[in-house]
Amino acid sequence: MSVHAVVIAREMWDTRDLVGPVLDANGAVKPGAVSTRFEPQDLNALESALRIKEMVGGKVTALSFNAIGDVDVLKECLYRGADEAIRIGANPIDLDTAAAATLAAAAIRRLGDVNLVLVGWTAAEGESSVLGSCLAGLLGMEQISFVDRIVEAGDEFVIGRRAIEMGEEDIRVDLPALLSLGVALIEDDPRAPRPAKAMLKLKHKKTEIPVWSPADLGVPDPASNATTVVAAMESVPERVIESTAVDPEDESGLKAMLERVLKGE
Amino acid sequence: MSEILVYIQIVDGGAGDVSLQALACARSLADSTGGSVTALALGYDIGASVADLVELGADRLLVAEDDRLSHYLTGPYKRVVRSVLDANRFDVVLFPATTEGNDLAPLLAAELGCGCVVGCDAVHVKEGKTLFRRTEFDRKVHTDYEVTVGPAIATLRDGIADIPALGERRGEAQSIAVDLGPADTRAQVVNRDVVPKTVNLKASRVIVAAGAGVGGPDGFALVKDLAEALDAQMGATRAVVDAGWLPADHQIGQTGVTVRPDLYIACGISGAVQHWVGMSDSKTIVAINTDKNAPMMKRAHYRIEADLKTVIPKMIKALSA
Ligand SMILES: Cc1cc2nc3c(=O)[nH]c(=O)nc-3n(C[C@H](O)[C@H](O)[C@H](O)COP(=O)(O)OP(=O)(O)OC[C@H]3O[C@@H](n4cnc5c(N)ncnc54)[C@H](O)[C@@H]3O)c2cc1C
Ligand SMILES: Nc1ncnc2c1ncn2[C@@H]1O[C@H](COP(=O)(O)O)[C@@H](O)[C@H]1O
After folding, report:
1. pLDDT tens digit string along B187-212?
2. Is the distance from the beta carbon of residue B253 to the nearest atom of ligand 1 less than 6 Å?
């Protein structure tokens, strides 16, 4: 048995340095208010999959949905070394996690021989995500969540390390399994999953990514699998912080500031 | 009517704080809609330490004890909770939004085909509907979710409710059978490195926290000196804990503790959302950072754009003068 890993790559709202109101008057996300990026944790999931492949051989397939912004995460996966990419022909914004997971699970089943699924744990826009868990439940796979890095991998097992509330632990799981990855990972350079390679960009310039429609996947009406609805969205009143710059060179200013804050002002 | 199950996470041999808050939340939900609260605790040799859960709000307490449950692992824990969900009818199932709760809750929801909302800051009832509120988009948007396929499963964040004083309630405690097969133990912990608690940051009024910006032992020592000069406890980001400069119980944030001190001094901390969520309720925030655009600087009451190695000695001097 060799490893066939599927990575779920998500294009997500980029919430770094988010300024100004996100919602319009009707409480919907303003078009253009937030740009998108390759969810960093999914990049880590991809990196982990590629490293496992390098360790034990096998294949990496990237799976995603229709693009919501300008980033084609599937091409990005190919540029980094994924063997194959498949697009699920549905708009992820219209689906809740349960519905999206139903489609992803159907695509993974259709691939046939998948024995490892890797996904990012959180999605920045919501600080936590349930896609991995939903998938594990639907596929009946054992899951290890919050994995920070892959410690060891073999043909039939993976050992992942994860942070827990008061430390960390290594968990060995027999394949098939699903791992959800956090952001702080991969020993030698935690923040640097490999970049896109020029060679691969050239190679995949004309690669057509197959699109599997919900109907192809036997889930003609994915929205019917939704289990939650958004009842309301509202902007959080900005916590008005009167921010004062303190001059680091001015010792008496520093002293006055410290006195003020210690008095609770 | 809401029949509510609350999953109690065992922390240091007793019910964890966030679980107790979830229990309090369940109690008020049940009191307002008419219904009852069942608490469920899993572990090994925990019976005595969870006995007061009925005084804290549970009408019924279920305890599952087995040596295979002595540490959390998804497989066996999921099996036991699932057996309770299969044998009873619940409308709402609440977990603490901890690593453990956020791991279990969505998995159970997927198996049962019901809805799940993780990381809720509030639960409220509106026009007869139970709504689960999350904060999204970098804490700029509140979203209320309604679960359309029950039972509604949710994980609740630290701060969701106050833990009540021990009351007069009398509920029944009942131990439940644990029935595990080989399929439930396919994953194994091969190594665990957990440190015993050394500080109680939650009770600290002044916290001086170190981030990766300390750069090394020298910078770290300066932050420590500042904490001592202020008679403060030291907090840390995960980067600092991962570097081994402080034990894990100093970590503040999503996978650490949530603190609400009067004064929080962030030294070389970028202010990643996973850290921010653990300290954003601090009354006064002071940030020291070389990068004036770091998120922490934009949110601090007082921002000092400087190298901490030069400014902290000045602050210590000012304090001793
Ligand atoms: C599931 C999970 C839970 C976490 N829980 C906690 C927690 O409880 N407490 C906590 O403090 N942290 C937690 N973190 C880590 C958190 O995301 C930050 O990494 C951490 O807070 C940063 O610490 P710092 O401010 O000391 O240093 P740094 O963040 O090192 O400073 C961050 C700098 O790195 C840059 N950066 C970020 N990403 C990249 C990138 N991909 N490439 C290049 N540069 C980048 C940013 O621009 C920023 O200036 C958690 C992370 C995850 C995934
Ligand atoms: N010597 C320093 N003093 C104050 N802040 C710093 C210092 N070095 C780095 N920082 C900030 O601390 C955070 C973490 O640093 P880094 O890990 O280098 O990204 C960043 O926001 C930096 O801008």
Report:
1. 888 888 876 667 788 888 999 999 99
2. yes
Q: How far is CA B278 from CA B210, B212, B254, B307, in A?
A: 14, 17, 6, 24
Q: Do A184 and B321 touch (CB under 8 A)?
A: no
* Residue whose structure tokens are 């420590």: B224
Distance CA B19, CA A121 (A): 22
Task: Give every CB contact of residue A207 below 8 A, 6+ residues apart in sequence.
Answer: A75, A78, A85
Among candidate residues A57, A55, A54, A64, the one with its CA nearest the CA of residue A7? A64
Instruction: Say how far apart CA B263 and CA B208 lie, in whole Å.
Output: 8
The listed CATH number (3.90.1150.10, 3.40.50.970, 3.40.50.1220, 3.30.230.40) that belongs to domain B201-320: 3.40.50.1220
Residue A139 structure tokens: 């596929």
Measure CB to CB from residue B315 to each of A124, A126, A258 and give the nearest one. A258
The complex scores an ipTM of 0.68
By Cβ distance, the residue of A29, A127, A171 closest to B190 is A171
pLDDT tens per residue across span B203-260: 889 999 999 999 988 999 999 999 999 999 999 999 998 888 988 889 998 778 889 8
Which A positions 188-247 lie with beta carbon below 8 A of chain B? Answer: 226-236, 239, 241-246
Pick the CATH number of A4-234 from 3.20.20.70, 3.30.470.30, 3.30.470.20, 3.40.50.620: 3.40.50.620
Residue whose C-alpha is closest to residue A87's, from A61, A59, A64, A119: A64
